Amino acid sequence: MARIPQNFIDDLIARTDIVQLIDGRVPLKRQGGEYAACCPFHDEKSPSFTVSPTKQFYHCFGCGAHGTAISFLMEYDRLEFRDAIEELARMAGVEIPADAADSGPSIDPKLWEALDTAQQIFARSLRGSDKAIAYLKGRGLDGATAKRFGIGYAPDAWQTVVDAVADTAIAVQAGLAIRKDDGRAYDRFRDRVTFPIRDLRGRVIGFGGRAFGDEKPKYLNSPETPVFHKGTQLYGLYEARQASKAPAHLLVVEGYMDVAALAQFGIDCAVATLGTATTTDHINLMFRTTSRIVLCFDGDRAGRDAGWRAVERALPAMRDGREIRLLFLPDGEDPDTLVRKEGADAFGERIAGSEPLSTFLLSQLTDEVDLSSVDGRARLVALAKPHLEALAPGAFRKGLEQQVSQIVGFDIHDMTASPPTPRPPPPPLVESDEEHAPPTLTPRVRRAARALLERPAIAAELPSIPRLADAPDQQFLEQLIHAFADNPAMTAAQYLERLRGEPDEATLDDVLSAATVPAGFDPAADFQEALGLITQDNAKQRIRNLTTLSQQRELTQGEREELRAAYQR
After folding, report:
1. Residues 200-238: pLDDT tens digits?
2. Less crowded by CB within 10 Å, the N or C end of the chain?
3. Angle, helices 523-550/557-568, rounded to nearest 10 degrees
4. Is the overall model pTM greater than 0.85, yes or no?
């Protein structure tokens, strides 16, 4: 993927009012020169979330969440960096430069238009189809739920969508049409109830079509297209995120109707895979929305086998702070039928009592061995080893290793650990990682940086850029002064985006996240005073350095003149 030009990001930040952006999602109240609200990223009763219109920066003093408009969309709307840029560009009415397009095949805008056209046709056709309405009512689905999920009906005709899209090649590329050998095309979805599949931004990327009777296939999904990939998409995820920005968990079920039925009963956290098994990509996608995933399966042998395969795919995505549980339903039941039979509260209790991944994993493994024998216990360690190694290092992996050790009665690391290898000698000090670590700011440098970030134009008003000491924190300040002197209109948020991913980003975050400035604060005066004190400190330190050097060797003429001038000041 090509890099988005920095000047475009700067322009996008300049066009975006972070107060307006956040207020549209989290109502803000004016508080002095800033705005405040209860933090959307953690539970709290009194507001600790502040938004600065001058810095174009938000910060929560409770949980530490902070950043620019881009960061807010990434955290609140759960978007990737590029998706956040695209969303801000859409809101600002600008296009991302062509040379920043994906390095893969470009997506023709007409493809999105075709998918949207098809959705409009299906939604409109449902209202005029007694057959489709009767089917949905027969399944117990009400009109409000059908409207919420955009459920529609594909007419029993060969070219309704093809004719509406007009561009046959686009209709085929979007997965809406199938081209015959003679070059003509016909609608892929005909005489079926349709379920639009949306991406995280709410755009229709594909469809699922349900037959009314015993027609084969019973469910027909869109094929792979430039925007639709079954192994990385989930039905209902967009709707679940609309219901709650931070759901306590996501429930993975099998079918479209399961998702819709659960939502109708107030269980808004269900999503479904699209005719495929749950993949690692699915798991990672869900963990961008919640820290807990509940995988739902039939309670029969086939269901438990499917659960085992899902666990194997989920292990590489497990990290400390993430949780996966498994829910096995009674034989012959699916979420749609069960929630109607026993109600939302009882179904919620089933979710609460679901089985932790670790419990299920160890149960499956121990069922395969005879723990009463040494051979069986050794076999358990051998079976567990590849699953443990699939986990990232951390508390979860360590806990599982300890559980296996308790089951077999000895420390499994005695068997599995490799012989220790000699430690290499430490690298020279100058090559230490500390050289690249973000600097710790002294109080005076922090004070100067804070004042400058409050009013970046101060830098352009300086008669000259001061040459500060070589200390990392002072070099950070000097670079900050240079950046704002060269770009007088640049905001603190724009500079922060320039440092995204750089070592100094954390240092700038820290300064921007400082306590709110007091009323009557004069950034220019405070900056000048702090900079003057830093300059005085540097001069004194230089005198000390030259004095010490004079005791070790004869000073050069330039050094003697510098020392003499310093004493005369």
Report:
1. 888 999 999 999 977 888 889 999 998 898 888 999 999
2. C
3. 130
4. no
Look at the chain and count its residues: 569
Instruction: Quote the CA–CA distance of 337 and 140 in Å, as a whole number.
Output: 10
* CB 103, CB 3: distance < 8 Å: no
Residue 418 is predicted with a pLDDT of 47
Query: Which amino acid, one-letter code, is at 173?
Result: Q
H runs (alpha helix) in 433-552: 443-454, 458-461, 472-486, 492-498, 504-512, 523-550
* CA nearest neighbour of 84 among 94, 71, 97: 71
Helix (H, G, I), strand (E, B) or coil at 221: strand
Contact 360, 323 (CB under 8 A): no
Rounded to a whole number of angstroms, the CA Rg of the chain reads 31
| Distance of alpha carbon 158 from alpha carbon 191, whole angstroms | 10
pLDDT tens string 59-87:
988 888 888 999 998 888 878 888 889 88
State the helix-helix crossing angle for 443-454 and 472-486, rounded to 10 degrees: 20
Under a CB-based contact definition with an 8 Å cutoff, are residues 6 and 494 in contact? Answer: no
Cα–Cα distance, 70 to 114 (Å, whole number): 29
- Take residue 236 and report the two structure tokens written for it: 């209902």
